[in-house]
Amino acid sequence: AHLDRIAAVDDRVHAFLHVDTEGALAAAGKVDAARAAGEPLGPLAGVPVAVKDVVTTKGVPSTAGSKILEGWKPPYDATIVSRMKDAGLVILGKTNMDEFAMGSSTEWSAYGPTFNPWDLTRIPGGSGGGSSAALAAYEAPLAIGTDTGGSIRQPGAVTGTVGAKPTYGGTSRYGLIAFSSSLDTPGPCARSVEDAALLHAVIAGHDPRDSTSIPAAVPDVVGAARLGATGDLSGVRLGVVREFAGEGAEPGVMAVFRESLEALVKLGAEVVEVSCPHFQYALPAYYLIAPSECSSNLARFDGVRYGLRVGDDGNRALEEVMSVTREAGFGPEVKRRIMIGTYALSSGYYDAYYGQAQKVRTLISRDFAAAFERVDVLVSPTTPFVAFELGSRTADPYQMYLADLFTIPSNLYGGPAISVPAGLSAGLPVGLQVMAPTLADDRMYRVAAALE
Ligand code: GLN
After folding, report:
1. Boundaries of every domain in the chain
2. Is 2-228 assigned to CATH 1.20.1250.20?
3. Are 191 and 156 in contact (CB under 8 A)?
4. Which of 82, 127, 131, 292 is catalytic?
5. Where is each Amidase domain found (predicted)?
6. In the prediction, which pLDDT does 307 show?
7. What separation in Å is there between the alpha carbon of 81 and the centre of ligand 1?
8. 82 lines ligand 1 (CB under 6 A)
9. In which residue ranges of the chain is pLDDT below 70?
10. CB within 8 Å of 214: residues ≥ 6 apart
11. Distance 185 CA to ligand 1 centre (A)
12. 67 is catalytic
């Protein structure tokens, strides 16, 4: 049914870069056979899932939305993919995204944009716009995203779907095409909080193949989502960040946020204002740290080991072939990030830029720690504005970067955060973000499920 739905609508939505019809039918057949044989099956066995194209899938194209990886078929599965396969999930295909997950609208995909199913003239968010649009268009019931600065939550918010960024290190990065290694976090996208929690439970947990994976038990996120769904939040303290109030969110977004707070208070929650004075520096710190790590990670795309090679005519030196390949293979936003990052890491500038940004990152983590002494979770709008028109923010990078104003702090800190549909502004979806302390992923699911 989902393959039929993709065939019917994806020429208009363009959520998928690759549909793996054969693989999906084979995986579904295996689950049917297991069921017929009376084998025990997990709760998601046979459920289809769409996977963001930055996640490697064995033998299935994985381009990260870039020309430089066009046609590349990875020889192995990411850990989260093998875990989904082991749990009987059926991978439908690979979803569109901003090139190497750099962007907030999916307009920086080298393969053309994805369109928001709510209004096809608008963006579906980014970088994981394909995953969220696939959910909103009923092309898939579950999807995988990756969140470095908001790329699961912001697309969730603007497509009226749920997107959760687990605790950094709570889900394995093994097999993710790296953007910013100290921030990248894979996580679940779904149409309900409980569905997201079910997928979270499948993909999370320690992985010895990822050195930053946390060797701790996965919190009971499914139980927490079900508890939240009972609608009782008595005793839960919600922190509202004072510094976010003046940050220029659209009035319609703020109105939905206030209504959500009122709804949560009716369920028994208490609202406490907290101050996080360094959150205002999160965006500039992120735009030094993420590009710095990207400039290092993307050095591996040299035309020798992977994908595209251009200009290898027998007359050019190796370095020139690398340079011509990278010129042809990377799009404008990726080049901008590599240049910023290379500059910030250069000797003589390191202390002034990268080193300084790392200090700011520590101060932001301390703001979180201080806030979580007083409250259980922090809440905010997920994004300052609803889905915007295609083309309206590509000319000025800063206008695009602003989409992640409220999502980036939790990436710098490493704690979990979720976006849940909260209402509509001018007919377009608005998300509520719930941020929790590191390894307290269950708390955010509980609060998010209560709002649903
Ligand atoms: N929009 C942010 C960026 O462009 C975040 C991307 C992400 O989370 N992958 O870097």
Report:
1. 2-228
2. no
3. no
4. 127
5. 1-443
6. 87
7. 22
8. no
9. none
10. 167, 169, 170, 206, 439
11. 11
12. no
